Amino acid sequence: MPGRIPQSFINDLIAKIDIVDVVGERVDLKKEGKNYNGLCPFHNEKTPSFTVSPDKQFFHCFGCQESGTAIGFVMLHDRLTFVEAIESLAASVGMSVPREAGSSRQEISANNKSIEAIAKAVDFYKQQLRISTAAKKYLQGRGITGELARDYQLGYAPSGWQTLENGLEGVGLEALVDAGLVSEGKNKKHYDRFRNRVVFPIRNVKGQTIGFGGRSIGDDDGPKYLNSPETELFKKGEELYGLYEARKSNSRLHKIIVVEGYMDVLSLAQSGLTNVVATLGTATNETHFYKLFKYTDEVVLCFDGDGAGRQAGWKALERALPALSDQKQIKLIFVPEGEDPDTLVRKKGAEHFNQQIKNAISGLDYLLEQLSSPLNLESLDDRAKFYGLCQPYIDKMKAGILRDLFKQKIDQIVGLREQTKQAPRPKRSFSEGPKVSRLEAKLCGYLLKYPDLWSQLDESFGEKELLLINRCELLSAPVKQLQKHSTLESEELLVRLMDEPAYDYFCSLLNKPVEIGIEEMEIEFREGLKRLTLKLKEKEELSSSDKLSEVASISDLKRFVSLKKNEISKL
C-alpha cells in the first residue's frame, strides 16, 4: 500500500484551496454579506439553508446540520474516501500528493510513469483527431459534436505500427508497455496497440486516464472494439466508462443509467442525458454495483430487447442483489429488438428515452416475474416450487427492510399466512443524544475533534482499561475504529462512523465548540479517561458484589431447608 500522506501537505493543501471555489463547482451559490448561500446538496429543500464561510473556510447546513471543511464537503458530496478527496482537491490546484516512505515506492513510481505516459497519449490522440478527416467524418456521422468530443477527450490512433511510440517525446518503451499502449509481438518487436481507431479515454473517479477503448474505422483492422489490456492501473472488470464525466456534469446523481457501449454513452450525453455509464466489454458485476451505489441511490440497467439482452439483464440483476437495500435500488429497461440506446435516442429523441426510463421495471419485480412466468401459481405444487426457487435470491440479499418486504411479497404470492411478529422496540433518537454520562460525551467530542489523542495515551492505559472503554455505549465506536486505524484524521473518522446509530450525535459533538486549547485538552482527555474507567470498574465490582450476595442468600436458604428436613426426620 502507498505510504501515508504527510500532514504538512494536507495543511498546505487546505491553505491553497478556497472552499467557495470547491463548493461553487458543485452547488449554485449566491453572495449574501460575508458568506455564500445556496440549496443544500445533502437534503431536499426549497429555501436555502446551506452557507459557506470564506473567512472560516467552513460550510454548514442549518437544515440537515452537515458541516465541515472543503475536504469534508468533497468526501460527502462526491462520496470519496479521505485519501481520494485529498487527491481530487490536489489535482484541482495542480499539486502532486506526496507519500511518506512505504513498502511500495517502486510500485508508486511505476504507476506514476504509466499515468504520465497515458496523459501524453491522450494529448497525442486528440491532436491526431484534429487532422484526421476519416475519424472526424465517422464521429460526425454518429452525431457527435466537437464540444462532446472535447468533454470526453476523444482522439484518433493513426495507422502505422510505431506511430505513437515515435510520436511521444520523453516516454520510455517500458512505460508504454506497462501502460498498455504498446504491445510486444512473437518476434519480440513492439507495435502500437491502437491503430486506425477512434479512441475513448477511460478515466477513473479522480479524472486520471487509466486506459482506452478503441473503435475501428477501417475494414481490416481487427475486432470492431478493442480495450487496453489489464494493467496495474486498469482493471476493466472494475471500471465504468463515463462515470467521471457523469459525476462532473451532475452535482447530485439521483440515478445512473448503465449501457453496454461507448457510443451509447456519447449519444445519450449528446441528447442531454449525462448520467450514463458503460461497462468495458464485461458483464455488470458486483464490484460495479458497489461502486455505482457510492454515487447514487438508483441504478437503471439498459439492455437490448432480444434474448441475449434479457439474459444479460437477468445475470446483472443476480449480481446486484448483495448491494441492494431500502436506499439502494435497481431498475431495468429493454430497448426494442434491433435497437440500442444509441440508435433509439437518435431516431426518437431524448424525450422518448426518458419515458422509457420512467417506465423502467423494478429489479425485484422483474425477478419475481421471471421466476413465476413458467409456473401455474394456482397449482399447489408450482407455488411450492416457486417458493423454493426464490430462496437462493433471498439469501443473497443483505438483512434489512428491503429483504423483509421481498420475503413478505413471496409469502403473499404462495399464500403463506403472515406469522405473528413481536412488535419492534422503538429506537431511541440519537439526535437528542444517547443516555451516557456528561464525562463520556465530553471525552468522545474531544476524540472526534483530535483523534491523535488516542495514540498519545501512555502505558498506564492498559488492556483492562481498554476492555472497559469498549463496553461504553458511545465512546466504544470511535475507539474501535482508532484501534484498527490509528492515523485517522477527524473527518475520516467521522465517515467511518456513518453506519453507527449515534452518527447524528457524533456530528453534533464534533461541531460543538471547545473553549480550551489542545494542551489542556490532552490533559483533560487523559485524566477524564482515568475517571471514566474508575467509575466503570466500580460499577462492575458493584454488579459482581450483588451477584455474590444473591448466591450467598441462596446458599443460606439451602442450609435452612436442610436443617428443617433433619428436624422433621427426627420426629
What class do helices, strands and sheet pairing give? alpha+beta
The helical percent reads 40-55%
Task: Kindly report how far apart the N and C termini lie.
Answer: 85 Å
Strand neighbour order, sheet with most strands: 1-2-3-4-5
Q: Approximately what portion of the residues adopt beta-strand conformation?
A: 5-15%
**Based on the structure given, which CATH architecture of the largest domain is correct?**
3-Layer(aba) Sandwich
How large is the count of helical segments?
Answer: 24
Low-confidence parts lasting 5 or more residues at pLDDT below 50? 418-431
The CATH class designation of the largest domain is Alpha Beta
- Arithmetic mean of pLDDT: 83
Write the SSE topology.
Layout: H1 7-16, H2 19-24, E1 30-32, E2 35-38, E3 50-53, E4 58-61, E5 67-68, H3 70-78, H4 82-92, H5 105-131, H6 133-141, H7 146-151, E6 155-157, H8 163-167, H9 173-178, E7 182-184, E8 190-192, E9 197-203, E10 209-216, E11 225-227, H10 243-249, E12 256-259, H11 262-270, E13 276-278, H12 286-292, E14 298-304, H13 307-320, E15 329-335, H14 341-358, E16 361-362, H15 363-372, H16 380-396, H17 401-414, H18 438-449, H19 452-455, H20 463-469, H21 476-484, H22 490-496, H23 503-511, H24 518-570
Parallel strand pairs: 12-13, 12-14, 14-15
Antiparallel strand pairs: 1-2, 2-3, 3-4, 4-5, 6-9, 7-8, 9-10, 10-11, 15-16
